[in-house]
Amino acid sequence: MVKKGRVNSIDVARRAGVSASAVSRTFTPGASVAKATRERVMRAARELGYRPNAIARSLITSRSNIIGVVMASLDNQYHPQFLERLSAALQVRGYQILLFGGPDDGHADAAVETILQYQVDGLILASATLSSEFAEKCVAAGAPVVLFNRTPHRGVCSSVTSDNVAGGERIASFLLAGGHKRFAFVAGGANSSTNRDRERGYLRALADAGIADVRCVVGNYSFDRAREAACELFLNPDRPDAIFVANDHMAFAVMDEARYRFGLSIPDDVSIVGYNDSRVSSWESYALTTLEQPVDVLVDATVDVLIAQIQGRSSSRRRIQVAGNLIVRRSAKLPPHGIVQSGSRRIWMPEAASPSAKRAAPDRKVRAWAQN
User: What is the DSSP string of 313-332?
Assistant: First the structure.
């Protein structure tokens, strides 16, 4: 007879003929338990319909095995891609994610209190639009925190980003090599370190080439606002022939406006380059040339840094930057040199001089240093 009502671990232990502690170890990731004992416990659990109570366990261990992820918006097509990979990487370590929407600026205190009430073991702040105050409040509350794709203000916590300055420089060099003359930049948010770094690299490389007249408009990481920004550029009689857009999400909006409102040909009339390499970038309708943020490398680094903090193996604040490749598709004119075939992708790598180098993609470079 199967017991009616809620089944507990004592019931499973009796059915399996083992101790209650053996049942606990069986359902604790990484715990040591004999194979035969595990099989007996799992068989008894199936027969009784038992599932361990994660909430009850967290009260005993003071660990919820939950990682809070704070993200202001899922509109950006790169974010679901990041969440999918992050969830898989954390599950391997025995953690689950709990997703929170980002707070409006000025409401950080209440948002932090709400999030920490869920007893999360750590936090990943994964939005370029979150305020610096929010990160500081989380750190002050004693939560292990890692910023994803944003550099912390005053170095208050660890961060994992792409090398945004180098990425902006590489995009500028690519467009210069393509023979463009009139340059523009569609920015994300003025207060975003991610945006500032990409813009700084882009403008610096253009300035080094003697180009100081660059039209800059703000898309605010919004599809609709990016469309308005594109209109500002294309209504100008001296419209740009090369545009770097601070992320792919906005780049799609700029491409749509160029083609469907202004009747421009891409890349014959205007070249457009994004940043992220989200999955939509490879769709035939866009075929966007973009600077990749290698999601696997970035997620693995984020998880490693956060778990080290949770387990007490590292108290240092770490800053990690990951270099990405410039993925070449059809949205921008091609330079006469430096295009490398890597599997099904084309990468711009003008530094590849030898025939052997041109047959392989460059290794991704990861830079890491302590902020303390």
Answer: S--S-EEEEE---EE--SSS
